[in-house]
Amino acid sequence: MNKNILLELSLIGCNIKQNEPLSKHTTLCIGGNADYFVEIFNEQQLILLLKFIYKNKIKFYIIGGGSNILFSDEGFRGIIIKLCGDFCRYCIQENKIVCGSAVNLSFLSKITADKELSGLEYFVGIPGTVGGAIYGNAGTKNMSISSVIDKLEIVDFIGIKKILNKKDFNFEYRKSNLQNCVITKAFFVLKKTDKNDILKVILQETDKRRKTQPIGTKNAGCIFKNPKNDSAGRIIDSLNLKNYSIGDVKVSNIHANFIINENNGSARDMLNLIDFIKNEVKKKYGISLETEIKIIK
Ligand SMILES: Cc1cc2nc3c(=O)[nH]c(=O)nc-3n(C[C@H](O)[C@H](O)[C@H](O)COP(=O)(O)OP(=O)(O)OC[C@H]3O[C@@H](n4cnc5c(N)ncnc54)[C@H](O)[C@@H]3O)c2cc1C
User: Fold this and answer.
1) Cβ 31 under 6 angstroms from ligand 1
2) Which atom, in ligand 1's list, is nearest to the CA of 129?
3) Please, what sign has the CA dihedral across residues 66, 71, 74, 78?
4) In 3D, which of 86, 101, 99 has the Cα closest to residue 181?
5) Which atom of ligand 1 is nearest to the CA of 178?
6) Ligand 1 pocket, 145 CB below 6 A?
7) pLDDT tens figures, 104-156
């Protein structure tokens, strides 16, 4: 079977890495080896790959910028798919953007600001790709990415390309109905606005992140979703858990909803600390925190 997988992957024309450390592909720098790490360059390759995977019932997972994922220390027994090449292209015409899902979100935010287009400026410091952001409806208190999406192109897990219009997608707080598909292209509609107004937001957002987040550390952003009308960071902080550590991972002393990999932190340490925080919050407040990061076992 292994030989068949390799042969098929090479016939598809993608770039294949075997036993690839997932720690190299996540902002937490945690995760064991993936059996196959496959870089896909265009839609045709993606369709062929998904058809092959479906037919042979192979385990797989899509990765974007790896900024919202925790992979296990044992790694991944199957194929990790990363979009590259054509999926990194974008085109801006008047106030409309057509954008490959592997484009970096923060980069797109800056490029559109430069064209005096408003709508993506709040996402300037969010790491990762447009596809990852759409999948999880990323955003800030002010705005989520769903509010500027006009249309999407996807390939479903059977390998069929589809175009989704507004009536087809559903977004909630850090959640979408875009399951069982690979988001390949996004169509945004933005608003022509005075560049200074957009730059003001960009500066404010950048400054806020600099002051309230552990910039330059190995982390995956907020670990937990905010409970309704409250903030997970505030709740965790109220339990004096800033700086609390297990193994080589610890709660940030700047933002209590961030867990930092200090050096050689493991997924086991992360999961233990996540469970510990959840239990403490449940004991004290009766609140069940839900993780925002995707935990892949
Ligand atoms: C310092 C820091 C700050 C952050 N700040 C914020 C913030 O302010 N707001 C916020 O919402 N998030 C924030 N995050 C979390 C994270 O950056 C976002 O969730 C981001 O949108 C994830 O994108 P990604 O490409 O890294 O996705 P990944 O982490 O690679 O993947 C996340 C999920 O998306 C799926 N996925 C990825 N690409 C595709 C695709 N093309 N098609 C289908 N599914 C796909 C993956 O399978 C996975 O389930 C922060 C993270 C860090 C490290």
Assistant:
1) no
2) 25
3) negative
4) 101
5) 43
6) no
7) 999 999 999 999 999 999 999 999 999 999 999 999 998 999 999 999 999 99
pLDDT at residue 297, rounded to an integer: 86
**Is CATH 3.90.78.10 correct for 215-296?**
yes
Give dist(CA 183, CA 180) in Å, integer.
10
Adjacent-strand bridge partners of 18: 36
Q: What's the CA gap between 41 and 82, in Å, rounded?
A: 9
Distance 241 CA to ligand 1 centre (A): 25
Predicted confidence at residue 4, as pLDDT, reads 85
pLDDT on residue 216: 94
Please state the atom number of ligand 1 nearest to the C-alpha of residue 130. Answer: 25
CATH of domain 89-198: 3.30.465.10
With contact defined as beta carbons under 8 Å apart, do 49 and 81 qualify?
Answer: yes
pLDDT of 2 > 80? The answer is no
Sign of CA dihedral 131, 141, 205, 198: positive
- In the chain, where are the structural domains located? 2-85, 89-198, 215-296
pLDDT value of residue 149? 98
CATH assignment of 2-85, given 3.30.43.10, 1.20.120.530, 3.40.50.2300, 3.20.20.190? 3.30.43.10
CA-nearest residue, atom 1 of ligand 1: 221
Q: Whose CA is nearest to atom 6 of ligand 1?
A: 126
